[in-house]
Amino acid sequence: MTRRRRWHRIVLPLGLVALLLVVTWITSAVDQPDRDDAGFLSSVNTDDDGGSRLAAELRARGVAIERTTSTPQALSLAPHDGFTLFVPAPALVHPLYLPLLVDPAARARVVLVDPSQRVLDDADMPLATADRRWAARTVGTAADGQPCPLPEVRAAGPAAALRQRYTDAPEFGYRADRCYGGGLARSRWRGNDVVVVGASDPFRNDRIDEQGNIALAAGLLSAYPLVVWLDLDGPEPPPPYHPDGDLEPWSPMPGEPNPFDAGETDDRGRNGSEKSGEKPEPSRQAKPPDETNPLWNAFPPWFWALLVQLAVAVVLAMLWRARRLGPPVTEPLPVTVASAETVFGRGRLYQRARAYGPTADTLRAATLHRLLPAFSLPPDTGPDEVTGAVEAGTGWSRADVHHLLYGPAPTTNQELLDLARDLDALSGLLAQNPTDPPRHDRPVQGEAR
Amino acid sequence: MTGRAAALLGTAALTLPLWPAPWLGVPVMVGVLLALVVLDWRLATPPGAIEASRHGDRTVRLGETVVVSVHLHNTSTRPLRGLVRDSWVPSAGARIDFPGAPKIEILPGGRAVLPTRLTPTRRGDRPALRLTLRSYGPLGLAFRQRAEHPATPPWTLRVLPRFESRRHLPEKLARLRVMDGTGVSRGRGQGTEFDTLREYVVGDDVRSVDWRASARRADVMVRTWRPERDRRVVCVLDTGRTAAVRVGDEPRLDAAIDAALLLAALAARAGDRVDVLGVDNAVRVALTGGAQSTLLARMVDALAPLQPTLVETDFALIAGEILRRERRRCLVVLFTALEPGALGEGLLPVLPRLATRHKLIVASVHDPVLRDLTTRSPERVQDVYAAASAWRALADRDRVRTALARHGVTVVDAPADRLASMVSDTYLRLKALGQL
């Protein structure tokens, strides 16, 4: 008992803390807008995770917005000069487009919202992701003790831009401008002007009003009079033509270290160009017969081997447990009948049949049977003599005694119960002046004398 | 295959990330393990090379504990490491009682004794069902186990009835001696037998003076008497459905056996012959009294495995058996229940045949529940109906009793703990009155 309580003392607080952590983590994960959702930071989405308010602010500042839903279209729509390309979900852009995307024109700015390391690698950017916070934090514009080199950012002031921190990739030897403690970085590598923002909060409808969020977002995007807003609904199809002729499957999962590990193979584009005759419906995915399930590649081979070996071990354990040490022993049980079973059964039958009359008769007869010897009366004594004798012996009124012993049959359970109690009381009075021992104590009967 | 093999394989699986070719590692490790298992299996002592025998007590009184041991002899050249299980029926109350059970180790050629303490919970025959031996290899990776290797040494423990009424025996025997000795000069009952002639001493009943013998001798001779001897007592145990009823904590049959044993012990000491019959719809036990010294032991042994069955007792069969076996007049003690259904339809029709030839006692265990129902103050309406039903049952029983008494049958109806004593008292009284 005490041991069990001690166990509780340790487990309960720890369990509560663990439960709290799990609940916090789940609610935070649920609360966090998903960067892959359709309509995330879309200029026409008025939900909490949309960017409609940012678009309205830009229009108010006199900036034109060109919304497109595919990268090639965005690249072709863009004028040669003087525009801002806003990419709210760079993870959805097909990797092959990324190098083109970050360098669209000589005078253009590209704003990427929360690009992962994979995106940065594919885009050939001289940046690397550093630590990531659970939620965006509002910080001042300075980074590493240096003031922010971007004037529009300095004008915006503190904003919720620090979630994913960015550092310089060591292999490039390039030093990017950084603000908000690393949450915002601007790279002019190879002459382009790419701004990466590590948090989507300054652009989102739900948080755009806080601090300098709106000033930061609008300031970043209003450098040129035109914004090309790349609003992708989902993972982008690959380019229709590729010089290598074959494409690796890729994953739109943000933050994946290796884009070619897992995910659905989206080869609609290739079907459309190379195998259009074979699979006419673009909705159905064609799978070449020699292609293996990508799930196999999602984990290293040793993982699958481990699973197989563990399965073999489980089979061995089953074989071990299946052999019992001798069969279970059986034994015919003896016949046992509960005592007075029939008596109780008959009592229940009386009750179900509502046999008030016969029950009362039996009880009265039994009481008389005990009564008559007590008053030294012969068994065939009439009711009047019995009533008189009982009246004399107990002091009960004559009418009561007569009603009790010879009255009408009861008609309800309660009447029957009262009758039984009265008879029992009468027997109890007689038992006080014992004249006759209880009859089952006479063990020997019918003995020849 | 043991848990150790599975655990080994599972643990080895954790090294797979270190293998250069994991898919090669799986068959290699499984193969090596299977090879080890097969090797271990080959090296394990074959269970057939173990010889098993059993020694110990054959009988036990209910409530006592005996030890029955299994002796294992390792005839192989390898040591035996293994598990052993000696299974008895659950009611035998078996408890393995050797250190380290159920693990055993026996060196080559060695012997081991595995005692089992048995405290049976029921009367009757309690068999040992099976001996199972599992022999492990030296690595503990595999075992050999085969049904009936070694063969289960058969054993049956007979659990004798408790015979709690033993404690009444000295008192009854004392009363018997009183009858034997002082009763001689006290009464000349119609059934007492002539014993010897002796010289008259002052105080003898003058009515016992044998004048004819006195005339032959110079002295006044008196006759001495002794109680009847060499009478026959037949205990008939009804093992039908009414005997299965549990009164208190034990079936009616157990109380009846107890009473029959006391009666037999007493009658045997008094010089009467005791036969025992156990009958329901067939004769289950028939024991004819023999030597007085062994009677009780034989009777206990014969009655121990007797169990009630759920059939209607065939009283015609009982009557037929008694009439066939006993030519002389004898005392028939019928242990049954005073139930109007069973006795009214079964016994009463055959009673005249039986009662004219023999003296009959019907002994029944009565149910304290009935008395409880009729004397308790009613709490709920259910109690009223149950009390009425109990009164009906008592009235039925009285009718049966009256019907039996009309045929001169003596009825003994007593609670389970007093039945044996009362039956013996009745026997002694009848004997004293010379009515046997």
From TrEMBL, chain A:
Segment forming the signal sequence: none
Ranges for region Disordered: 237-292, 428-449
Protein name: DUF4350 domain-containing protein
Classification via InterPro entries: DUF4350 (IPR025646)
One Pfam family here: DUF4350
UniProt keywords, alphabetically: Membrane, Transmembrane, Transmembrane helix
Residues that span the membrane, as ranges: 302-320
Basic and acidic residues composition-biased segments: 265-290, 437-449
Domain DUF4350 as annotated: residue spans: 45-221
Highest taxon in the source lineage: Bacteria
TrEMBL record, chain B:
Superkingdom to which the source organism belongs: Bacteria
Domain DUF58, first and last residues per copy: 197-404
Pfam families: DUF58 (PF01882)
InterPro entries registered for this protein in UniProt: DUF58
Name of the protein in its database record: DUF58 domain-containing protein
Organism: Plantactinospora alkalitolerans
Lineage of the species this protein comes from: Bacteria, Bacillati, Actinomycetota, Actinomycetes, Micromonosporales
